Every structure is written in C-alpha cells, then in structure tokens.
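Regression test case RT-17, inverse folding.

Input:
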C-alpha cells in the first residue's frame, strides 16, 4: 500500500484498485497549518510526525503515509478546520468551523 499524489489528492493504492475517501490534498494541509498559524514544531509536538517528514510532505518531495495524513487531518479538524471537497465550480478548500459562544 502506498500513497500517490494525483491532481493534488492523496489516494491509497491497494493491489489493483484505488481507495479514495475524503482525503485531504497537499495544498489543504499547507493552508490549514497556515490558517492556524502553526509552526512545523507545533505540528510535530502535537502529532509525533517528524519536522523533516512534514517539510517533505508539504513541499511534495515525498508521498506521505496514509496514517500521517490521517493524523494531520484529525489535528486540524480538532482545532476547528473544516475540509471542503472539490465541487463542479471550485477546487478543494478549507474554512474554520463556526463556533457558537455560550453566554
């Protein structure tokens, strides 16, 4: 099993088929980290993913493991990021979830 970058989406390849779930794209990973103003060190401390692996992933120098992408997606979603799938009119994106403040 390995991941490949195709049209900016990460896909898991297993034997003769490709599994595509709501997997986040590399630009979405970079955008989420920037939106949250997290440094590579911040993400490393929160996920256990090495700084070198994060840097290589964000620059497209390596295909990340599925587990790495899942850790990043989980972290960003816990911090309030919502990942948006591509539509007929727009590519994939991100936004912050609306937070309801209690009075």
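Golden output:
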């Amino acid at each position: 099993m390995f991941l490949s970058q195709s049209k900016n989406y990460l896909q898991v390849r297993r034997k003769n088929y490709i599994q595509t779930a709501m997997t986040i794209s590399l630009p979405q990973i970079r955008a989420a980290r920037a939106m949250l103003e997290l440094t590579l060190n911040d993400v490393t401390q929160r996920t256990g993913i090495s700084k070198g692996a994060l840097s290589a992933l964000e620059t497209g120098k390596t295909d990340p493991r599925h587990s790495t992408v899942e850790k990043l997606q989980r972290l960003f979603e816990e911090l309030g990021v919502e990942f948006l799938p591509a539509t007929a009119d727009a590519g994939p994106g991100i936004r912050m979830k609306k937070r309801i403040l209690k009075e």
